[in-house]
Specification:
The protein is an alpha+beta fold. The protein contains 15 helices and 20 strands. The strands form 5 sheets. Strands 2-1-5-3-4 form a 5-stranded mixed sheet. β12 and β13 form a beta hairpin. α2 packs across α3, α2 crosses α4 and α13 runs antiparallel to α14. The mean pLDDT is about 95. The chain binds flavin-adenine dinucleotide (FAD) and FE2/S2 (inorganic) cluster (FES) (2 copies). The site of one FE2/S2 (inorganic) cluster (FES) has 12 residues, from loops.
Length: about 450
Amino acid sequence: MAFDFTLNGRKVHVAGVPPQTTLLDFIRGQGLTGAKEGCAEGECGACTVLLVKANGSGSAFVPVNSCLMFLPMAAGQEIYTVEALANGGRLAECQQAMVDQGGSQCGYCTPGFVVSMFAEQYRPERSGPCDVHALSGNLCRCTGYRPIADAAATLGAPAADRFTERMQRPAPSIGAVNHGGFLRPTTLAECFALLAAHPGARKVAGGTDVAVESNLRGRRFDALISLEALEELRVFRASANEIEIGAGLTLTEISARWTAAPAVWHEWLPLFASPLIRNRATLGGNLATASPIGDGPPLLLALDARVRIAGPQGERMLPLDQFFRGYRQTALQPGELLLSVIVPEPLPALARFYKAAKRRMDDISTVAACFAFDIDDRGVVRRARMAYGGVAAIPLRAVEAEETIVGARWNESAVHRAQDVMERTLRPISDHRGSAAYRLALAQNLLEKFWWEQQAEAAA
Ligand SMILES: Cc1cc2nc3c(=O)[nH]c(=O)nc-3n(C[C@H](O)[C@H](O)[C@H](O)COP(=O)(O)OP(=O)(O)OC[C@H]3O[C@@H](n4cnc5c(N)ncnc54)[C@H](O)[C@@H]3O)c2cc1C
Ligand code: FES
Ligand code: FES
């Protein structure tokens, strides 16, 4: 019913705090009020803090949204807030750069920006200037982004200091937690026993969906079973036949490990939320939440992925196109969880991902599409996958549209035939993000865009 974690270098003992308290609320209650609550749903970055995570034999400072971490998720972790960055009244380089470049006005967003900028400056793999996209999960409503980007641009490699010294040492490993209904098992067997003992429990991985339900919709869970300490969900294996990606790896971790990832992965990843979210969001969580507008399903459906499911009776494998059963419903039985996602090799020769949203970056899809084709030397389509989110209650492949072009030449008339089939077969829903007619038109037009982009590339 109690646990410890390290906050700004000091051990903190937590007892008697409700399990759905956010890390943000807790640290602010400790008087560390640099991190702010702007939205409580991962959109603004005002609450950014640093987690110390493993990086090879050393560590890295990973920025995350503290509003989306339930406090018991911090158990055993080492966390730094903006207050830790200055040393004896001397500002950290990134803080001084913000002052020098005029990067702050009202200051509400500033601690969040500073923490993201700090993490980028100290990012172990960084060479050259700071990547301004590292700040893309932080919003500012008054300064404007130019002076903030200018501040980031002035930062070189970090000087040797207590933080670079900390990075030489390993990150803490997280263990079991039992805190007022928040349970974190460390083995699959324990996890299945807990799921059986708490049939109403909600599984939680990174929490970027579950914490939004808690914070914004006031949802209170009978129990939360955290999957974060299960090593079985953190595998990454690449062989000649397939890539196996642990369901519990964050998107950032997958990107670091999948060194031979196809171009479509690199197209997809930056369109998925923000770096702060990607540092916590898992691929398993993205599939299991079964949102019709999630971005993972179209990508993985187009790549013919399968999912490995584990339960008390053992393991089973399912093609991803049989995983989604209805609006927010999956083939997971009570007591089961997603272990990994398997992407078969060889990957399709031609694959593109498109996301139509109100904003280009850091927004949820209205319609997302992934097209994956193999086309032979004569221009004949040998394999076609057209996978969509946002055109039905579940993510799906437009199978009949695919069938109409396989075996035929890939040309404009094939595009129109597939569009005609979509007109008959896709049944989008209307909601505040887009009407059914608009979504259908998007689905059709994205295929056409895919075609015209290839023509442009061939002509270039
Ligand atoms: C600001 C913001 C922006 C976002 N932008 C995007 C976006 O651009 N695209 C997008 O697709 N999504 C987006 N999301 C949604 C979310 O980040 C993703 O769905 C994410 O991948 C969820 O992963 P998680 O580990 O945080 O899941 P959690 O919140 O921990 O869990 C989500 C659900 O999956 C279940 N679950 C988790 N892991 C497993 C498992 N291994 N086995 C069985 N069940 C499991 C949980 O019980 C829960 O029901 C966004 C969210 C926020 C807050
Ligand atoms: S308060 Fe806005 S992202 Fe956390
Ligand atoms: S300085 Fe006011 S919101 Fe950024």
